[in-house]
Amino acid sequence: MKHVLVLGATGMLGAYSALALKSAGYRVSAVSRRLSDNGFFAAHDIPYTGGWDLADQETFDRLPTGIDAVVHMAGFMPAHGDASVLPYVKSIVEGTVNVCEWMRTRTQCRRIVFNTTPADVAAHRGGSVPIPDDAPRSWPRDGGDHAPYAVCKIAATDLLGVYQIACGFRPVVFRHMTVFGWHPDASFNVDGRPTVSPWRQVLRRCIAGRPIEIWGNPKRRSELLYVDDFTAAVRAAIESDATGLFNLPGPRPYTLEEEFSALREVFGSAPDKGKDNPFGFVYRPELPLSPECLLDGNKARKELAWQAVVEWPEACRRIRREMAINRFAPLWGEAAAEDRLPPGLPVD
Description:
Blueprint: E1 3-7, H1 12-23, E2 27-31, E3 48-49, E4 69-72, H2 86-106, E5 111-115, H3 146-167, E6 170-175, E7 179-180, E8 187-190, E9 193-196, H4 198-208, E10 213-215, E11 221-223, E12 225-226, H5 227-239, E13 244-247, E14 253-255, H6 256-267, E15 282-284, H7 298-304, H8 312-325, H9 329-332
Parallel strand pairs: 1-2, 1-4, 2-3, 4-5, 5-6, 6-13, 7-12, 10-15
Antiparallel strand pairs: 8-9, 11-14
Helix pairs in contact: 1-5, 2-3, 4-6, 6-8
């Protein structure tokens, strides 16, 4: 039985990964900065170490060393900060070096799973052709919060390459768009200003039976990757001998109309506006919309034997079920009133 250490286990990707790995038969240890997980991981027979800090080498002394793989999902994100550079450098760059040095000097483990950001191929966004895994990397030249984030993710990824050559590390780095799944916190920061994420705004409008606006081009496509497919990629990386950077696209690109139609169908209803607009969308082509960004998934299919399989309507149904059972409540708390499912809405 392989022993997997999940860093950043109280975040969304870390928590879902820890539970999925445990269900798949792995021995899992969860680690995070939060002092307490309110007994969440113990209820799943997963030991938890809190009070760990990426930038504080002394806190690594409390981590288990008899491990076979590290899933490194910890680090400072724009969603929780602003465009200040130092927090990203200390957490992502210095923190990743600290993880590697601890692995090198205290363990026999050389397998590490990490993730970067699609902002590291900023110059390629906006095209209709999927971006390849090995596209020349770049960072946004807009002065926003994703500029230092992307620079630090690029640096951390390259440093993992240094440890691969010098110390025999076997890194797998994922590039992906937003990973969809249930978390009660609907807000994130944009350049330091809190805002409700766009898809959660749509979900809340569905629950409330309010009109949904579609900005820009309704045929613009997106990668919609569900968290169960992400955790399957984590398992594939642990079991594979492959190394390198891998795109994780969704099952297929979805248009805005397809994305919002599934949300409306699963989470609510609206007056029928006729066969050409059955969900009553309000089209606002004059309003701005982020550019299309598609990812090529051939490398992951060939080298990791992975591809996303959860289609977006099924992802919406799984999110609805997670909202209903709220199994992460001890870890993340209860849902806001705007996110509570109306009576009579199916949950399976």
